[in-house]
Amino acid sequence: MKSITITGSKRESVGKKATKALRNAGEVPCVLYGGDEPVHFNAPELAFKELVYTPDAHTATLELGGETFMAILQDIQFHPVTDRILHIDFYQIFEGKEVTMTIPVHYEGNSRGVRNGGVLRKTYRTLRVKALPKNLPDFVVADISPLKIGDKLYITEIEKGEWKYLHPDNTVVCQVRTSRNIIEDLEDEEEEGEEGAEGAEGEEGAAEGAEGGEESKE
User: Fold this and answer.
1) Is the predicted pLDDT of residue 209 greater than 80, yes or no?
2) Do residues 125 and 105 lie in contact, with contact meaning Cβ atoms separated by under 8 Å?
3) pTM (2 d.p.)
4) Secondary structure class of 216 (helix, strand, coil)
5) How far is CA 43 from CA 5, 7, 88, 130, 189, in A?
6) Which has fewest Cβ within 10 Å: 56, 172, 180, 184?
7) Which of 45, 104, 49, 93 is nearest to 68 (CA)?
């Protein structure tokens, strides 16, 4: 998994006035949990761009006053009107200790069921996984190519790696459902057409055989 480096400064004052002053200066107040004690720090809002505004999941390398911490983003608060980042909580992770993280699902492929008018229903856009930090994926791939109308894609059928999905094996990640625009499966039609042609040839052969039998009797 890709790691985004964020350089910040530890802060001693955590009151409302100090927090407001930081935000006015373009800084984001943050807290790092998971260690011996919480670490309060701040960093420029632009420093979080690649970590927050991305379709993939990333870890963070926090460089704070000469110390370096590995972490994952745990919670983030946005301003309800401006969407500016107000506060971020991080959770410290360690190289040899497994961590649980929410990973986005990338749907790939061209489903036959969708081509024939079905609707792809994405039940899960993210999944919870557990792994060592070095084995965490940026995203997991769900290939929908084999899905026909009415088919479901279970979690056991998506990308596997050195991580564990924290969902039951019968979890349906997505499915192709019927819709008003549905048309018959073209490939099934072709198969039926071939079978029908073979049946017609058989009937013609039987008819010729019967005619031959009548001529011999005459």
Assistant:
1) no
2) yes
3) 0.76
4) helix
5) 11, 6, 10, 28, 61
6) 180
7) 93
